[in-house]
Amino acid sequence: MSDATAKTAAPLDEVMLAMDVVDTLRHRQDLVTRELDGSAREAQLIERLREIYRQQGIEVPDHILREGVEALAQSRFAYDSPAPGLKTSLARLYVSRQRWGRPVVFALGAILALGVGYFGVYQPIAANRAHQEQVELTEGLPAQMDALYQTIFDETKVQQAVVEADALVKRGKAFAAEGNRTGAEDVITDLTALRDRLRQEYVVQVVNRSGEQSGFWTFPEINTDATNYYLVVEARDPDGNVLSLPILNEETGQTETVSVWGQRVPESVYNAVAADKRDDGIIQANEVGRKSDGFLDLEYLMPVLDGALTQW
Q1: Would you call 273 exposed, middle or buried from its count of C-beta atoms within 10 A (0-12, 13-18, 19+)?
Q2: What value, to the nearest 5°, has the Cα angle with vertex 44 and ends 42 and 46?
Q3: Which positions ≥6 away from 212 have C-beta within 8 Å?
Q4: What is the pTM for the complete model shown?
Q5: Where are the transmembrane segments (predicted)?
Q6: Which tens digit of pLDDT belongs to each residue from 133-181?
């Protein structure tokens, strides 16, 4: 190595030595405390440092030892943590991005997906559904009411059906205008039932089967001195199928849907039917009434009284 090279490297060696002196002082805090905080002078501290290096086989010039002591006092070659602040926080956040970056990106992606799903898919579908429901309530249901009314008007043979249908339509449209879907739908159900009632065809006849009653009598609870007479009847459609009809029980005041019930009749009718059955076991005149298409009520073919029983 040339002299020029050695001279160029010397300052770096001296800096390294000075840094080593500072490092030694930092690791020997007991030495610093005794010498600097006590009454000993700087020369004594330098002498002690020189002794430490001699024990290691290193000769350190006095000016290097002096620079090391001064550097320690001035905190040179020491790392000072940056003061807290926004820039410091952002820098630390950036440096640690490998640790938090992937979870944050995943979370942001999930939030974005949820946002797109909610605002881009769910809300438009919900808004469209709400719009369709509103259109159905204000236009669709009233149109169904009008159609049912027209059918009833065309098929009925009695004015009563038209009057009932008209009242139902007015009430149903009022419900629709108020936004009352349940009320409007209930009216459509009632109109449908009225139409179906008009279309029904059946015959009410006395039950005439082996082992079954064709009639009975009771003492009413409100007047035990009186006797009520009933014929056991059923309704059959044109194909002979037994129908279930809503019947008001005069004793309970409840309407029940039954296939067999007791129709109250005058005593004379009851006795005539009983005699007819006793004659040959078959009731010849067994038709009590007939319900025809286009009519609401049953047309009775024999005298009957108001009142019926569903249980006896």
Answers
A1: buried
A2: 70
A3: 232
A4: 0.56
A5: 104-122
A6: 787 888 999 999 999 999 999 999 999 999 999 999 999 999 999 999 9
